[in-house]
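Example for tutorial group B:
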């Protein structure tokens, strides 16, 4: 049963500007494991990764029903599996969290579904 649904759109340019202005931005947004994946990318792909993970955290907080604040950026971790599929590996909700990430040239869109435990 679906317990929560959240979506988010984030402008890639906004995240790129935040990272360029403050090189610690990625460390603030990303968990250590996410940051390790992030460092393997450069250029546009690095911006997409960072923006995608930021957007997932926004979507998750909306699905959780609180928005960011009660759910902190470091509370939600999304890592790519062996095939490159994003998987939420750590989060505060006791059930399952599913995620989808999609990019255009200027935007990233994410959706998070929280499923209740059976």
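The residue assignment follows.
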């Amino acid at each position: 049963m679906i317990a929560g649904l959240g979506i988010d759109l984030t402008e890639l340019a906004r995240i790129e500007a935040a990272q360029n202005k403050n090189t610690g931005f990625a460390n603030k947004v990303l968990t250590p494991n996410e940051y390790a994946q992030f460092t393997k990318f450069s250029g546009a792909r690095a911006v997409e990764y960072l923006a995608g993970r930021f957007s997932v955290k926004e979507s998750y907080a909306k699905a959780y029903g609180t928005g960011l604040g009660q759910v902190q950026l470091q509370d939600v971790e999304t890592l790519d599996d062996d095939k490159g599929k994003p998987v939420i590996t750590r989060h505060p909700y006791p059930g399952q969290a599913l995620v989808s990430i999609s990019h255009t040239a200027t935007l990233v869109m994410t959706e998070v579904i929280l499923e209740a435990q059976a």
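The CA atoms of residues 75 and 91 lie 6 Å apart. Compare this with the pattern of hydrophobic and polar residues in the output above.
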